[in-house]
Structure formats: C-alpha cells, structure tokens
C-alpha cells in the first residue's frame, strides 16, 4: 500500500447488542480495511467485520487489558498512515468514558482525516432495559454522570453531590459504591434513596438489582454477572415497579432526612 493518509472512523458500537448499532456505523464497518475493536460483549459483532479486514482485539476489562491506550493509538495512526480505512469500534459512545478524546488528539496530531460516529450509550440502554427513565417530570430534571473509579480520589464536593436533585449514574463503580454510598449519607443524602445496578445492558443476560443507599452503605452490592455494570441513584429507580404510587416531587430525594 502506498504511504499516505487514509481515514479513521471512531465508531460507537452501542451498549452490547449488535441490533443497537446505528445504520451509519454498520455502513462504515462494511468498508473497513482495519478494525480495532473493544470488548463488545456479544460475539456476533464479529459477523459484521469484512473478511478481508485486518482485525485487532484491543478490549479492556478490569485486570485483563489486552493493550494500553498508547498502543491502541499507535496502531490507529500506523494503519492510517498506510492509507488504510481504519475503524476504531468502541462500546457505547466513543466520547462517554470511551477514551475517544485521547484517540482523537492522536489522530489530529498526525493530521489524519477522521469522522466520529456516535453510538447508543449504556447509560440510556441500561435504564431503558431496566424499565425506568433517566429523567421524569417532577422527579428528575437532570442527570449526573460520574466515573466510580476516581470519584473517591478526586476533590469531590460531597455536600453538593449529596444534595443533587436528579439521577446519578456511576460508570465503573461497583467496587467503590459502598464507600460512595457512605460518603453521600455522611453529607446529607437519604438512606432511603433507591439504587439500581444494571449489568450487561441491552443483552439477554441483562440483570437489574434494586436496593437503597443505606443498605449499600451497610452491606455493599454484589454483581450477578461478570459483565460491566452501571449504578443509578435517584427516585426514578422506583418507576420500574409497575403501578408505583410516587409523589410528584420524589420521596427519598437527595438531602432529605431518612
């Protein structure tokens, strides 16, 4: 292949179910010459890769990293500079805890043509599959998305966090949620606040565990599957119970006394 500059597509594959890929994502994948793909959960994704494509698995799971972020970016750039069409297929949306921003910086540094293709995030797929909304009139007008890995290490304003009037979504937070729950309660959040852990969003193996902030602070919460999970905190979680008679302003909202 003549040296030059191909094109890089940072493509969101959706939350795990191939049927939730966008039409644009599918059309781009069909013409890929190189595919670098994440741990996309459902192995049927592989059926959509062109037989002629060079394929690299670069997925990350806790304790099972197959490639560093720097190595992934080096592969993207190297293949693009060989004048190839490179598809970086990422779970969920590339720009929501997908490290797509880091890859974009590397691509721009080499002045390589690119396109960003957004994907359905596990954020919305998880709540939809569990049967509750992220926002709901009278209960939640805003959503706070946080990284459970680092929230305890950063200078978090826990008083503001505990008084948040809306829905909190924690990515990568199952190992730290007990400490997070305790910290929220210490700063004024209600122990009765409902919490849902949704695992394997959008798949047949999706599992949802519902509990309260107080119980998590005391006992933690255990995953039922080895797949990824998202934790949702807020009164909207109660809406998954059919016929739930919720007050319009959300009993158990942040800042209330238990």
TrEMBL record:
GO biological process: methylation; siroheme biosynthetic process
Domain annotation Tetrapyrrole methylase: ranges: 7-216
EC id: 2.1.1.107
Keywords (A to Z) from UniProt: Methyltransferase, Porphyrin biosynthesis, Ribonucleoprotein, Ribosomal protein, S-adenosyl-L-methionine, Transferase
Pfam families: TP_methylase
Keyword Ribosomal protein belongs to the record: yes
Transmembrane region(s): none
InterPro entries found in the cross-reference section: 4pyrrol_Mease, 4pyrrol_Methylase_sf, 4pyrrole_Mease_sub1, 4pyrrole_Mease_sub2, CobA/CysG_C, Siro_Cobalamin_biosynth, Uropor_MeTrfase_CS
GO MF terms, alphabetically ordered: uroporphyrin-III C-methyltransferase activity
Enzyme class, first EC level, given as a word: transferase
Biochemical pathway: Porphyrin-containing compound metabolism; siroheme biosynthesis; precorrin-2 from uroporphyrinogen III: step 1/1
Gene Ontology CC, one term: ribosome
Recorded family membership: Belongs to the precorrin methyltransferase family.
Cited NCBIfam families: cobA_cysG_Cterm, PRK06136.1
Name listed for the protein in its UniProt record: uroporphyrinogen-III C-methyltransferase
Gene: cobA
């Amino acid at each position: 292949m003549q040296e030059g500059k191909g094109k890089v597509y940072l493509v969101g594959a959706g939350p795990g179910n191939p049927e939730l890929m966008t039409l644009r994502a599918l059309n781009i994948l069909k013409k890929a010459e190189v595919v670098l793909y994440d741990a996309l959960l459902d192995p049927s994704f592989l059926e959509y890769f062109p037989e002629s494509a060079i394929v690299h698995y670069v997925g990350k799971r806790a304790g099972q990293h197959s490639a560093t972020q720097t190595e992934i970016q080096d592969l993207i750039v190297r293949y693009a500079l060989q004048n190839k069409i490179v598809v970086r297929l990422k779970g969920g949306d590339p720009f929501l805890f997908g490290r797509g921003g880091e890859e974009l910086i590397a691509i721009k540094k080499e002045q390589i043509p690119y396109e960003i293709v957004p994907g359905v995030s596990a954020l919305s797929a998880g709540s939809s599959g569990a049967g509750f909304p992220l926002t709901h009139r009278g209960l939640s007008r805003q959503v706070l998305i946080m990284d459970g890995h680092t929230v305890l290490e950063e200078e978090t304003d826990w008083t503001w966090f505990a008084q948040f009037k809306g829905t909190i979504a924690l990515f990568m937070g199952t190992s730290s949620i007990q400490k997070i729950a305790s910290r929220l309660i210490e700063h004024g959040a209600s122990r009765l606040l409902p919490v849902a852990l949704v695992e394997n969003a959008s798949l047949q193996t999706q599992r949802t565990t519902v509990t309260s902030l107080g119980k998590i602070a005391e006992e933690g919460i255990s995953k039922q599957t080895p797949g990824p999970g998202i934790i949702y905190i807020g009164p909207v979680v109660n809406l998954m119970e059919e016929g739930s008679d919720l007050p319009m302003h959300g009993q158990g909202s942040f800042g209330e006394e238990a």
